[in-house]
Write a structure and sequence with these properties.
alpha+beta
Length: about 375
């Protein structure tokens, strides 16, 4: 029908515009976070780009409903402001008739969001956690930026039996003034701490050599000075014309169990409260999208001279309140204060129903009853 196509066309362009703006803002925010880590030598350029794309995939399940909701508010608000809705009503097209094209637009979007939440979200989180684990374990010299301190830290492991001596937490700080393309180093400083033991190495120059097939890299230092403090012996100080040390290539530890990276089918059969909260969150996203689309139709009502943006503040307040409530409900499920997050979508559904309820038909009946009594 012509009216259906017209309505869809009028709300699609604002939806795309709002979504694009939100996407640009989110990409900029994510890039700034990862570039800060890259500047510290923790990530390289390819990892920054990949992690940003993964973050965008995760965020789409939220950005798309927001874009649709406010796109509908802007598109329908323009139709109200231009008196087109009044003309449609005069032509016998009721507001309930306008629901059909909006729902037809929202249904495929809900399917996409369901796929993003149920399938893409856990996959993207898995890839993110694995990539960060590899980056954290890597000792590649390309990650060290000249003129900056680079710090790696190994936390204390899990408790060991009484007859075994536990490993101590350790950390290493590296500073290199200049790095040439052939990995020649100028003015190298390495400080290694393991428990109460401390080792400091300073050298005027050095060279990092890859060892093909080996699990370490060789760092050759010239004119090196070494200071070592130990627990059970005398401190050591030495000056060496040439000194070679091994830098072990640490294997990335498998990421810890996190509900965000677990497949939805596994979460559905889990009794863990955090798993249940995550699973219910994923299922609620397409439902929320449809409810917001339905809410935008009556919420966008405005008189022609009130302007197309008259109800945007109310829409923003409703949206912000809802996402705060569903966030609270998710936390309650994780903390076992509640068993479900569905009371928040149910509350939103009640608000939608209240906007669609024919209050104008109830008021005349009440007025007539009061008049009969008098």
């Amino acid at each position: 029908m012509i009216i259906d196509r017209h309505l869809v066309r009028q709300v699609t362009m604002p939806f795309i515009a709002v979504f694009t703006i939100l996407l640009i803002i989110f990409v900029g925010y994510s890039l700034s976070r990862f570039l800060h880590q890259a500047d510290a030598g923790l990530l390289n350029t390819a990892e920054v780009v990949t992690l940003t794309l993964l973050k965008v995939l995760i965020a789409l399940e939220v950005l798309l409903p927001i874009g649709l909701f406010f796109g509908l508010m802007l598109g329908l608000g323009k139709l109200h402001n231009d008196s087109e809705i009044v003309a449609m009503h005069a032509g016998g097209i009721s507001e309930s008739r306008m629901v059909r094209p909006i729902v037809a637009l929202a249904i495929p979007l809900c399917v996409i969001i369901a796929c993003l939440s149920i399938y893409i979200r856990p996959w993207a989180y898995t890839q993110t956690y694995e990539m960060l684990a590899v980056a954290e374990a890597s000792s590649d010299i390309e990650r060290i930026k000249p003129g900056q301190f680079y710090l790696t830290r190994n936390e204390a492991p899990e408790p060991t039996p009484d007859w075994e001596e536990p490993d101590k937490p350790s950390d290493r700080a590296i500073f290199i003034e200049r790095i040439s393309p052939d990995q020649a180093l100028d003015h190298v400083f390495i400080r290694t701490r393991s428990g109460d033991e401390l080792q400091i190495i300073a050298a005027r120059s050095g060279l990092l050599k890859d060892q093909p097939g080996a699990d370490y890299q060789a760092l050759e230092l010239d004119n090196a000075r070494i200071y070592k403090r130990v627990d059970d012996g005398p401190n050591l100080f030495a000056e060496l014309g040439h000194f070679t040390m091994r830098i072990e290539n640490e294997l990335p530890e498998p990421p810890a169990y996190k509900s965000k990276s677990i497949a939805s089918a596994t979460l559905a059969n889990s009794d863990n409260p955090k798993d249940q909260a995550e699973y219910q969150w994923r299922i609620s996203n397409p439902v929320t999208t449809m409810l917001l689309a339905l809410l935008a139709i009556p919420l966008s009502r405005s008189k022609p001279r009130h302007g197309r943006y008259a109800k945007l503040l109310l829409a923003f307040l409703i949206y912000a309140a809802y996402y705060n409530l569903i966030g609270i409900s998710r936390t309650w499920v994780e903390q076992q204060t509640a068993t479900t997050i569905w009371w928040a979508p149910s509350l939103l559904a009640a608000v939608v129903a209240a906007f669609y309820f024919p209050w104008h038909a109830v008021r005349p009946r009440r007025t007539a009853r009061q008049h009969d009594r008098h």
